[in-house]
């Protein structure tokens, strides 16, 4: 197995984008609990995201959601972020909150509703031009609740047509990433339920259209690392939304529910060339902190990804290939498990110190007084998503 020292330089290549909405209040359909210090504006969300980067040096960009993060001047928002040491990243569209979208948005039977949804994406691309963002991320809530409610093939055709219009507007340096989700808010069928549908749709668009894999958007028991391998093999893995789940789309802290699954996913990412400075796969979080403080929740999340990345980098790939080729079933499995069971926390702590940050980012943030200050200063923090 390689030593930690040998893999350490590769850790410096890690960047994990934070979702602005993780800093707002969020909850279940039953209750949204407020958290003292919750941001009231997009600027305050970005300031909080910058704290995560300050203590971890792992999160140099923040994804925004339109219109949740609506401001008058996106170039000014970009400068504001840069002054805090972070860039604005992926722009997420939103076609799931307007009454017109009750029966669909990009798939709607009414051309006027489809055009409204397409126009929204055009304005997201305008935002990207001002913020310098590379990726437009589309998560579509479209679907139906009852068999027969919609023409599921017609909806797929209209989706293809709408996406083609959006893609035609994307700049040469920009990308469209299409997220899939197996159910919710629709319960009978969803128009982009799985990686195959997303892959089929983006393949029809072109090279700059890719799949976004949200780890919480699969049926229980799905082998997610297999999907990661396949999309990397096909050159169509654009980005990750990392989170973890016990039941459905729980949006819990990544690595909290199943650290071994996170390790397996990251191993396939590393093995498939999806990790590092030369890779175009974007690492993002898509989480909601319902009861825990949001900034430490995000700090814990990026540290979990880093820890499992380090373990994935520790896999002795030459020995693994040899064991696989020799048909050494238990030997191969043992090589993978050796890396998974390696505790890298002390090594990571010293590595951080060598890079000028605190060995324990959670403790350093807690001691900084920032949480107490925002709790005192900010009154009336907004709910994630509905503050705009
Ligand atoms: C809804 O499921 C969702 O969590 C998707 O995963 C999106 O990425 C996110 O909301 C933001 O729109
Ligand atoms: Mn997502
Ligand atoms: Mn989700």
From TrEMBL:
Species the sequence originates in: Salinibacterium xinjiangense
Q: Where on the tree of life does the source sit, at the highest rank?
A: Bacteria
Kindly list the biological process annotations in GO that this record carries.
L-lyxose metabolic process; rhamnose catabolic process
Manganese as a keyword? yes
Molecular-function GO terms, alphabetical: L-rhamnose isomerase activity; metal ion binding
What taxonomic classification does the UniProt entry list for its organism?
Answer: Bacteria, Bacillati, Actinomycetota, Actinomycetes, Micrococcales
Which protein is depicted? L-rhamnose isomerase / sugar isomerase
Assigned keywords, A-Z: Isomerase, Manganese, Metal-binding
Any keyword Isomerase?
A: yes
Q: Where are the transmembrane segments?
A: none
Q: Which SUPFAM superfamilies match?
A: Xylose isomerase-like
